[in-house]
Description:
single chain, alpha+beta, Rossmann fold, Dna Ligase, domain 1, D-amino Acid Aminotransferase, Chain A, domain 1, nine-stranded antiparallel sheet, five-stranded parallel sheet, 12 helices, globular, binds adenosine-5'-diphosphate, binds magnesium ion
Amino acid sequence: MVEMLGVLGGGQLGNYFVLAAKIMGYQTAVLDPDPNAPAGLNADLHIVAPFDDLDALRKLASLCIAVTTEFENPPVSSLEFLAQHVTVRPSPAAVAIAQNRREEKQFCQSVGLLVAPYDVLETEEDAERIRRDGILNTHLNPFRTPLIMKTSRNGYDGKGQRHIHDFSEISKQWAAFGKVPCIVEQKIVLDAEFSVILARSNSGEIAVFTPTHNVHVDGILDLSFVPSSINSQLLEQGKSSAVIIAEELEYVGVLAVEFFVSENTLFVNELAPRPHNSGHWTLDAARTSQFEQQVRALIGESLGNPSMTSSAVAMVNLLGDRWFNGEPHFNLLRGDASTHVHLYGKKEPRPGRKMGHLTTTGDDANAVALRAQSLRDAITP
Ligand SMILES: Nc1ncnc2c1ncn2[C@@H]1O[C@H](COP(=O)(O)OP(=O)(O)O)[C@@H](O)[C@H]1O
Ligand SMILES: [Mg+2]
């Protein structure tokens, strides 16, 4: 009998999980309230229900041998409920940390890793303390403006963030967020950003992908390329930091860790308890993709070889903005065997919405990064 694997969330990451599971001989079930969710198109079963619907969760648990998640924000109570009936990887406890910026930062600090200077903003007293210490510029104040206020939960692609130029704005800006729990972080000078994606199996085996150099525009990932030109010591430090995080969390699954490089110092930005946009190149240029690793870790198999199949690869995202004057001219890419276009099957091309991505491989990271961007421009109407 063909066994079934489950995933919470039906976005493009869920869809690639479904496709990877399919070619490994599994059926899949997706839980997502959106009837048009991309993963629903390829899954054997799409349960259209809210993530906290107990009947839906019961159904998922009864049909599947194991369940994972494709986004960081499923209710932890849902994961805990599932875990009473079926294997859930990564653990609800690990997802709980990754879905809350405060806990994520406190966890990283507790295992000896640096994060950008920040303060917690959850109460009126917090707001007053940050404002007063900032304005008085006391030694208690760990940071200086500009700051970025980030909601502790549910932020993605730069959403749930506000830039603060003066400490006197803290209360007003926090009120504009409805006074939900936030963190306030120093805006640091970013020399570069990179991410480390790894998989860890339930036996403790770890496979780390080559670190990916990332460029964000307006808080959204725009370009990723490998290998990165960042100082190799910092990249190695990123890899060992990601391994520390995975081991300390007793993590099972695919974990992505985003890093900032500022003045030769490494800061952990955030964790994603799932495959990551910056790892999409592994679909076209690694012996094992991040999604195959996700399936392997979920079912308790040994991990695949994460090494690259080409010397260099670059990926650019295709946001809905590129559809503004009509559908991109994908036909222009036909015949280019080193370039792949991935479309997620989303019907509505809204600005900032990830509609797909384009990957191109070659010999040199700088050259492929430039080529990916110019190909994207060339197909944009
Ligand atoms: N403290 C900071 N200093 C400078 N740039 C930042 C800072 N925080 C975020 N950014 C920029 O915004 C991007 C998105 O922020 P991030 O905290 O990763 O949120 P998201 O969950 O939306 O990815 C980062 O990749 C980086 O380019
Ligand atoms: Mg991020």
